[in-house]
Structure of Phosphatidic acid phosphatase type 2/haloperoxidase domain-containing protein:
Amino acid sequence: MYQLDLTIFRWLNSWVGVNDFLDWNILFRAEYLLYVMIVAVFLFYAFDKNIGRVKLAIIHAFSAGILSRFVFTEIIRFFYDRPRPFDMPAEALAKAGVLVNKLIEQSPGHSMPSGHASFSFALAMAVYYYYPKTSIVFFLGALAMGAGRVSAGVHWPSDIFGGMIVGIFSAWLINFIFKKLK
């Protein structure tokens, strides 16, 4: 394990169990913020009169999200099965000085890259191509969701970083394909 991964994980995961509000906040970001982001993509219909651009943005966002989460992430996980923090052997965690405070239930294994992070960053990057200023909110949401997943004890920080790379690359690839098809 990398020292930076351990340091960031220890700090974020130490917030679990401090009080009910923080636990609720972490739980919301780790489990539900991605769904809020998905719904937010459809809100462009309400605020943009250019329906053609809205449709392209939605198709781009969900194509990139599906490509990143269900294709690239699964291919990487097939070749690299990294255990989640709570799934690490107790002696390895003790040696690294890590105590995992697990806030949500998650199946063991397949931690790298984070599927949640890959999907949310793919959405954010796809939104960037159509609504650059609004994409800042999506990128902040993706970062908050990633921090929530680490805080909840189900991912290492580098899993989120890996998901970010996969998601951004997927949106870029879909954008490249769209431009070639025009």
In short: The CA atoms of residues 42 and 58 lie 7 Å apart. The helical segments are 3-13, 20-42, 44-47, 51-79, 90-96, 115-130, 132-151, 157-181. The radius of gyration is 17 Å.
